[in-house]
Amino acid sequence: MFMLSPLHGVKSAYYGNNYMSHLGLRQAPSVNWCKELRLRSPPLPYAVALVSYPGSGNTWLRYLLQQVTGIVTGSIYMDYGLRVHGFPAENVTDGTVLVVKTHEAPPLETDKFKSAILLIRNPRDAILADFNRLHKGHIGTAPKSAFKKRSREHRRTDWSTYVSSQLKAWESLHNLWLTKFPGPIYMVFYETLLQETKNTLQGILNFLNYTITENDMNCALLNKEGIYRRKKKHRDFDPFTQDMYRSGCGRCTSLVQPMAVGAERLSSGDHKPVDEV
């Protein structure tokens, strides 16, 4: 098991005679873009961060933004699989891209990002999604056996240990951006993006001060599914035990609610477009 680190991505692999992409597909489908992808021209003199805990839908939101604008999105990472499947600006972190993906704490260099979009997903679902990614790629699903595996030196399952540590990581990441980042932040909830895609996308574009046409939005919505969302495979299986809910995931609601208040404040207009800061 590993955690994605800057400049280190997951390459594709071969299984027998079949190609297995990092997306978790034996034959990765092509993406139909609404318009030809391009760099931002002229480039902005600053970069905008797209921040999330892993498993929160960062790749899907990048896909939606590329569909609606035609501008590529960047990343502080180099994920070779993503680079060949629709994200050619992997490891580009300047103003030539619309936003820059990061799962890290705010950088020490205060001029690295001028503003940020913070994508938040319920920690229960985000932690499960990232556990699936670690085992089967961006849209694959970990086998049930992975949730029962135990290391010799641990009494608890690896899954139980992972949940405990990652809940703390989820909370720490969001708190650091909300309290330490000096620039404006626009909060987006994954669940809202899922249910109200059009309004959520428009709010992000307003924050970015990027204008689109009605046709741009309609095309993006017609193609919103893409190939970057994981399908639920084990519908009758909940890997979270009652002890996990009581000791850890029971805190999810209390962690998310204060953020929801902040998001409501921002969505009501208490923020400036990034070029007016």
Tell me what you see in this structure.
With 277 residues, this protein is an alpha/beta fold. Helix 1 (58-69) packs across helix 7 and helix 3 packs across helix 4. Strand 4, helix 2 (80-83) and strand 5 form a beta-alpha-beta unit. It is globular. It has helices spanning 58-69, 80-83, 123-136, 158-180, 190-195, 197-208, 214-222, 242-247, 252-267; strands at residues 13-15, 18-20, 48-52, 74-75, 100-102, 115-120, 185-189.
> What general form does the structure show?
globular
Structural class: alpha/beta
- Order of neighbouring strands in the sheet with most strands: 4-5-3-6-7
- Helix and strand string, N-terminal first? EEEHEHEEHHEHHHHH
Q: Are there runs of 5+ residues with pLDDT below 50, and where?
A: 1-26, 264-272
Fraction in helix: 25-40%
Average the pLDDT over all residues and give the rounded result: 78
| Rg calc | 19 Å
Treating each run of at least 4 consecutive H or I residues as one helix, how many helices? 9
Share of β-strand residues: 5-15%
Q: Give a short account of the largest sheet.
A: 5 strands, parallel
Alpha carbon gap, first and last residue: 41 Å
Count of β-strands:
7
Oligomer: single chain
